[in-house]
Amino acid sequence: RKEVEQDPGPFNVPEGATVAFNCTYSNSASQSFFWYRQDCRKEPKLLMSVYSSGNEDGRFTAQLNRASQYISLLIRDSKLSDSATYLCVVNPSLGGYNKLIFGAGTRLAVHP
Amino acid sequence: NAGVTQTPKFRILKIGQSMTLQCAQDMNHNYMYWYRQDPGMGLKLIYYSVGAGITDKGEVPNGYNVSRSTTEDFPLRLELAAPSQTSVYFCASREVGSLDEQFFGPGTRLTVL
User: SS3 of A59, please?
Assistant: First the structure.
């Protein structure tokens, strides 16, 4: 079983749609969780951290379910500019050297 | 600030050749990382460093070497290139005590033929 698993997609949605991505992780002791965004042929960039209580940043909402070991990302009112690959990222240890574990990513394509 | 910079952007190597991928950051970050990303796969950690003079292996270190003589620079050396090393290589850095955000360079696309 992969340490971090994501549906590869692609998710093809029209502008204005709501889309949700899920991610599961295998290490129940994992400490912190993130969503990174990666545009085509570019480097990953942090989109948002994921907190146990859930957190929201504008149109983006992230949720963490520790009992089921999954993380979700909800994008509301999708824009063309949201088209990218979304990487689920897990830090399996507390503190330490931040050796992040990356999922393979879920590709989102937003069309007019 | 330029952030994290990487050179070259692209490179084609022949099997058995060697090269050094350069990475530099101007944010005074102590932690630096090298990853590789194969098509359709997540990033895999090759090596990391927690400060000048200190390096350690990541998940996939075979075929690579690193050094960290200064805070700013973290070069990755490929010895005896093999087709399996065809990949996109990303360097990243992070501030000690930050909320885990790693800042990535633009990547180096390497093809070994």
Answer: coil
**Residue for token pair 């909402």:** A61
pLDDT tens across B3-19, in order?
999 999 999 999 999 99
Alpha-carbon gap, residue A95 to B103, rounded angstroms: 17
Residues of A in contact with B31 (CB under 8 A): 97-98
Spatial CA neighbour of A33 closest among A86, A71, A59: A71
Q: Is the Cβ pair A34, B100 closer than 8 Å?
A: yes
pLDDT in tens, B58-103: 999 999 999 999 999 999 999 899 999 999 999 999 987 666 688 9
Buried b (16+ CB within 10 A) or exposed e, A87-112: bbbbbbeeeebbebbbbbbbbbebee
Return d(Cα A58, Cα B6) in angstroms, integer.
32
Q: State the nearest Cα–Cα gap between A85 and chain B, in angstroms.
A: 10
| A45:B107 CB<8 A | no
Q: Are B100 and A100 within 8 A, CB to CB?
A: yes
Distance of residue B15 Cα from the nearest chain A Cα, in angstroms: 24
State whether A98 and B99 contact (CB < 8 Å): no
